[in-house]
């Protein structure tokens, strides 16, 4: 099976991708292009008839989505090594944002070097070699014990516990938890062999659609704030309306997964809930640091971690539920 869109791609790229990318990927890709085209047209119309800061922010988000989708699609087409390299870069930038917003001392520098230049490449290399056993414990066991010991060698005891916790939590979130997204490619599910890449696409679609739809429902119908001191934009109406809508879309995507429609709907609800909790928890961290965003890397979205906060909470939960229930 082929899609009309494949006619516009280089023949060599299509031939290489066809061997590892299921046909369902192309239909999802074409659908994403259609949605982004409609969003761009809507944003352009709103700019003409209802200009304002909200519309400007919306258009900035749409432009960023075009770029992010293009990068993700190219990595999917080029295969597992490129996908792992991309996520390694995402971990690097996300960890840099996390550390940049939190105070460090000279005694932390060696531990931070180990995080950036040893833990990140090692974690993604373990995924690339399908070494699940060490991938699952390397950071939460060995790095957890090693990093504070390395910092202690510096002799700097000022705020030692808080500093160690910050480094460990940053590494867990931005490297260990995030790496569970591409780790979905490790799963060998009977009857679903060679298609695990679609589980990654499924996770990302549900997570990001949930974020977008919660934002839209909150803007349109939001009246009751969930946690105004933590995130003034999160509302009960946004969570219920956007979350249920994203779960329904996830249920409709059951055909790209090894799940039944009901299982897909339940797993989508799990992803939505975990993503919401991730956004709320990391918003609390930002507020405690008197920061609005983690950075300015993505126009309209803030920093890299602002876009990944939902993924870092949902990816490990989704990975382990699917692994123990299906693989």
What this model shows, in words?
GO terms for molecular function: nucleotidyltransferase activity. This is Phosphatidate cytidylyltransferase. Keywords: Membrane, Nucleotidyltransferase, Transferase, Transmembrane, Transmembrane helix. One of its GO terms (cellular component) is plasma membrane. The protein is mainly alpha-helical and 327 residues long. The chain folds into two domains: 108 residues; 138 residues, no CATH class. Helix content is 72%, strand content 2%. It has eleven helices and two strands. It has a two-stranded antiparallel ribbon with strand order 1-2. The N terminus is likely disordered.
Q: What characteristic shape results from the CA principal axes?
A: globular
Question: Could you report the average pLDDT, rounded to the nearest whole number?
Answer: 84
Structural class: mainly alpha
Distance between the termini: 27 Å
The description of the largest β-sheet is: 2 strands, antiparallel
Helix content: over 70%
Order of neighbouring strands in the sheet with most strands: 1-2
Strand content: under 5%
With helices defined by DSSP (H or I, 4 residues minimum), what is the helix count? 11
List how many beta strands DSSP finds. 2
The number of domains: 2
User: What ranges have pLDDT less than 50 throughout 5 or more consecutive residues?
Assistant: 1-6
User: Taking Cα atoms only, what radius of gyration do you get, to the nearest Å?
Assistant: 20 Å
How do the SSEs run, as a string of H and E? HHHHHHHHEEHHH
């Amino acid at each position: 099976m082929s899609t009309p869109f494949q006619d516009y791609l280089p023949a060599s790229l299509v031939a290489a991708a066809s061997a590892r990318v299921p046909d369902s990927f192309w239909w999802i890709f074409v659908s994403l292009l259609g949605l982004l085209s409609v969003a761009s047209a809507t944003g352009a119309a709103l700019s003409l008839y209802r200009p304002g800061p909200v519309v400007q922010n919306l258009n900035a988000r749409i432009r960023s989505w075009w770029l992010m989708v293009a990068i993700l699609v190219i990595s999917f087409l080029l295969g597992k090594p490129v996908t792992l390299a991309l996520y390694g870069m995402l971990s690097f930038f996300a960890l840099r944002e996390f550390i940049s917003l939190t105070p460090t001392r000279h005694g932390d520098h060696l531990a931070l070097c180990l995080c950036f230049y040893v833990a990140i490449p090692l974690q993604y290399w373990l995924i690339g070699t399908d070494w699940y056993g060490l991938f699952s414990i390397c950071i939460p066991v060995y790095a957890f014990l090693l990093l504070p010991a390395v910092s202690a060698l510096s002799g700097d005891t000022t705020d030692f516990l808080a500093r160690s916790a910050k480094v460990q939590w940053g590494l867990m979130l931005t490297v260990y938890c995030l790496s569970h997204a591409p780790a979905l490619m490790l799963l060998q599910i009977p009857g679903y062999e060679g298609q695990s890449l679609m589980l990654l696409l499924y996770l990302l679609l549900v997570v990001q659609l949930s974020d977008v739809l919660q934002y839209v429902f909150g803007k349109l119908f939001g009246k009751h704030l969930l946690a105004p001191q933590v995130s003034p934009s999160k509302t009960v109406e946004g969570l219920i309306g956007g979350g249920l809508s994203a779960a329904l879309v996830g249920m409709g995507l059951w055909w790209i997964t090894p799940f039944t429609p009901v299982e897909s709907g339940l797993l989508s609800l799990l992803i939505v809930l975990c993503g919401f909790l991730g956004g709320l928890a990391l918003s609390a961290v930002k507020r405690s640091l008197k920061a609005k965003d983690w950075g300015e890397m993505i126009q309209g979205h803030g920093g890299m971690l602002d876009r990944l906060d939902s993924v870092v909470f949902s990816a490990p939960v989704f990975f382990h539920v699917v692994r123990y229930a299906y693989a």
